[in-house]
Fold this protein.
Amino acid sequence: MTLAWTVAIIILVAMIVYALLGGADFGAGVWDLLASGPRARKQRDLVALSIGPVWEANHVWLIVIVVLMFTCFPPAFAVLMTALHVPLALALLGILARASSYVFRNYDVRGDRVQARWSLVFSVASIVTPILLGIVVGAVSTGRIRAAPKENFRVLTGYFAPWVHPFPFAVGLFTLSLFAFLAAAYMTRETADPALQDDFRRRALLAQIGVVFFGLAAAFVSRLAEHEPFHQTLLSGTWSWLFFAGACAAAIVSTALLVTRRYRLGRVAAGAEVTAVVAGWGFAQAPFLIAPDVNIENSAAPAITLRLIIIILGVGAVTLLPSLYYLYRVFKREPAFEEMSHERAGGEL
Amino acid sequence: MDDVLFARTQMGISLGFHIVFAAIGIAMPLLMVISEAAWLKTKDPEYLALTKAWAKGSAVLIAIGAASGTVLSFELGLLFPEFMKHAGGIIGMPFGLEGFAFFAEAIFIGIYLYGWNRVPPRWHLASGVIVAFAGCLSAVFVITANAWMNHPRGFRYENGEFFDISPWTAMTTPYAIHEIIHMVVAAYLATGILVAGIHAFILLRHPESTVHRKAFGMAMAMAIPMAIVQPFVGDIASRQVARFQPLKLAAMESQYKTEARAPLRIGGVPSHEGRETHYAIEIPGFLSFLAYGERDAVVKGLEEWPEEDWPPAVVHYAFQLMVALGMLMFALSLWGALEWIFKKRLPRSRAFLACAVAAAPMGMLAIEFGWIVTEVGRQPWIIYEVMRTAEAVTPMPGLIAPLIVTCAVYVFLSVAVIAVLYRQVRIGPGMPPAQVART
């Protein structure tokens, strides 16, 4: 079953990348809502212009995860969609609201009032959606979703019980603070204006406090979860200590770099922090996709399907990763905000 | 009403909403690329202004298309988990390929929209070409998956289980080709005629506007050949339906009796009780001819199948409306094409512009009706003659709640999109500055 494990690892990698890129786009919405001070308007413009060219590409990682799930682990997908129908449907509403309000705000022309209204929808959706996605991730780890693999993976538990629980909510808030932290850390490199950089530097440090707080809270309430192996591996496994140590080290380094205004490296350390967290979760979660009844082996699609998907992924990666690199090189190598806001003011964007 | 119907309605509304944005996402980048190429070649600034105006509108529409497409990929599982549990491993491949096409589209739309001053002009144009191509490719893969639902193969089905799965065989279902061509042509046609209609509307008020004249010409140049080709593609499609889904053909035509020399019905009100179709104009033998190539061919009627397997009667009306709209667009395009051939330009008369305005929504409506024929006509099956939709639906109760939310959200979004685009057009190129001051 190495094929199934290969795909599972690819899904985890896609989740990490989605958190690093798509997650930061959600986090940017938090700072849209919390824009304040003399540069509030500039902060909002920075949010809008830094996610503008990349958010659609970043969003596709979520599609990649979903498609890999339903193609390679169809019963797991079916159980997930049944047991977590409610939070997933709400997250979809959030995704729809966020995408449309974002483009409406950018391209509607009626003036500040209308823009402020779309801005509000955008930021609220940007906050609610990652909490819901975090709840989903938390819920598959609690062991409160039960299915019967011998009865064609019939779902045995209800539609609220699996996720209305402290652990998924703690993971949801942890996810939100991680994304907000990432966004603020990235934003320091999007502008050349020291005052604006400093605004986001302070915001990143503030969010870092939230990350630590909700991270600890989630670790603490994971004890309440019904799935013993998960919190045991999470809190006391040899490997998980490694991830835990890695995440802590990255957090200390990223904090230090932000405090000392070394933004270029700070951005990298912030990414490393999030990578360690998501990878650590994946490690504690394995071999379960939905603990405790659905795992990588018992829900895998036939080998032929997995093999074809891996081939497609290989071919796709060869063509798309260079394109993605090009996209990021064009827009993210140097701070582009000042130039882009100039272009926008001239009606060019 | 029961939960199966609620789930089907929600899926149908979500698809019906997304398809408009998907069609625009396929065709609009092509128009932008053509206009941009014209700018690079002629250096006429009107082409540049037009390209940018179109790009702004497309940015809104493509973003909403991407989000509503995401909704769909989840909804398949949220509403029909039993379907995804079995179909995922068989037909996931085209979805995976579609994912990559979508990825390419998303990467290069970013470069296209924001990279005007950041990449060399040729690269910018090339980005647009990739967006246009990837959008079309996405459609090809998604329609392939749909074709499999209508003509499933690549597995052995026994006692509710699927064995001997072959994703490649599934993906190469013979039902795909005509569906793909019919839909891709429809996307270019519907978008072209919609865009032409909008510019025709402005031209009626500002006939001197050269930029809108150019826009109208390019959009019509895309729509006209498509509208002329589409009836012939549709003819091929109906033959394939006759071959693979004779029951659907019978429902489309409200053909109750199995008979040779079956008539083609235009209009008509089918009555299931009386097993006949009232008030239709009948052309004797023509259905037999269209479906099988000879007037004496036997066309199977609905009576051949148990009534519980019949698709809803709405299929008949949707089919009639799609064909009628296609014919109207065909006629308008023929008018345009003939003048083009003889006078080397589009008709200049106000009558032609007025007709183009009237035709603006027809392509999108025809797409909606066409998908009702395909998808409602597939009922009561989710995997044709293998799995019933009722077997696939989620066990979750209370599906009316998400249905109501879905309806409300999509109605609101539709209104918002139209309002935003309307205001964009009002301050766009070729509008008198006085009007800008008033907004």
Remarks:
- Strands of chain B lie at 156-158, 161-163, 259-260, 264-266, 269-271, 276-278, 281-283, 298-299, 381-383, 387-388.
